Amino acid sequence: MGPWRCLLPLLLAAALRAQQQQFMEYVERRLTLLEERISQWHDQSSRYSTELRDFKNQVLGMLEAAEKEREAMRTEAESAAVRVDRLEREVDYLEMQNPAPPCVEVDETLMEKQVATAKQRKNEKYTKLTDCSDTIASIRSMKILKRFGSTSGLWTKDAAGNSEKIYVFDGTANDTVYVFPRMREFTLFSATRKAARIKLPYPWVGTGHLVYNGHLYYIRQQGPFQVIKFNLANKTVVDSSVFPAEEQIPVFGLSPFTYIEVAADEEGLWAIYATKEDEKNICLAKLDPTSLDIEQMWDTPCPRENAEGAFVVCGALHVVYNTRLPSRSRVQCVFDVSGTLAPEDASLVYFPKRYGSHSGMKYSPQERQIYAWDDGYQIIYRMEMKKKLEV
């Protein structure tokens, strides 16, 4: 046992040294691997830094180029705006150079004869010109297009033609009509730069104008209430006529700026007005669109008080009412000149609540919809129709 006791410590020491040597080799391998990874990370970091610097320089170059292009486009836009403004001034100047059409002299004898004939036929039953037997059932839908111009005004299409042009009358006293080529241009562009301008020989009053078969019918602002028939193609006055009604007053209690509302329906041209003689109710007259003669006149049971607008559908006058503090508009009085629609059978249509009250409402017989101006907003009401019930 003696020799083994001496040999055992030697064996243990040799085994310990072998374990230490293996541990040191393992540590050295791990350190070497770590150094390689650190070196690889350093190389990648340097490469990414170089790429990021190159990308930054590239972006700066692109931003500088974009800034130069933006500046160039801004300069071109300003130049184009200057040219457009110059062109508009030149167009206005050319329109101003057109000689004003001569005033149409009013034949007093002829007017008295016309008034006498109209009064003789007053309140007679109307002989229909068409087979139109529809009346309004309800408002099918409402579309708000945009907000343009003053709180009061009128916008419309040609009530008798197929033109897509939009005519805009901004305000209740003006002499310039804006004409947009289509609904798209009127809807998309807020400025009037896309619109042609027609300067009228006499300023208008109110919002009772009408575009019918290529002509504009409007009420002259100064002097007696004169209906002007204006050719929109050659921009000349075709005819004019002093409206044969004495002591006229505003036709709508809530629209004091409108004295005569010229309207169109399937039957032709109408005039909605009021006089001192019967100041409580609204009057209606059938007009000859060619000569502006009054063919027939009616006293209606529709009151002026709280009325804000009116239109004619198939020979039936529809009066729209509201309140002094604008609320929900509604058709509350219907007067059918042919007697084929009983008052109790007429639908008392309510318009959707919007902004204020209507200053202009134009019925389109072809489209069966109303172009309305409500507190500066341009709105389209599409109508649901039904057949009249014979009385």
UniProtKB/TrEMBL annotation:
<keyword id="KW-1015">Disulfide bond</keyword>
<comment type="similarity">
    <text>Belongs to the OLFML3 family.</text>
</comment>
<dbReference type="InterPro" id="IPR050605">
    <property type="entry name" value="Olfactomedin-like_domain"/>
</dbReference>
<keyword id="KW-0964">Secreted</keyword>
<dbReference type="Pfam" id="PF02191">
    <property type="entry name" value="OLF"/>
</dbReference>
<keyword id="KW-0325">Glycoprotein</keyword>
<feature type="coiled-coil region">
    <location>
        <begin position="56"/>
        <end position="97"/>
    </location>
</feature>
<dbReference type="GO" id="GO:0005615">
    <property type="term" value="C:extracellular space"/>
</dbReference>
<dbReference type="InterPro" id="IPR003112">
    <property type="entry name" value="Olfac-like_dom"/>
</dbReference>
<dbReference type="GO" id="GO:0007165">
    <property type="term" value="P:signal transduction"/>
</dbReference>
<protein>
    <submittedName>
        <fullName>OLFL3 protein</fullName>
    </submittedName>
</protein>
<feature type="domain" description="Olfactomedin-like">
    <location>
        <begin position="131"/>
        <end position="387"/>
    </location>
</feature>
<keyword id="KW-0732">Signal</keyword>
<keyword id="KW-0217">Developmental protein</keyword>
<feature type="disulfide bond">
    <location>
        <begin position="132"/>
        <end position="314"/>
    </location>
</feature>
<feature type="signal peptide">
    <location>
        <begin position="1"/>
        <end position="18"/>
    </location>
</feature>
<keyword id="KW-0175">Coiled coil</keyword>
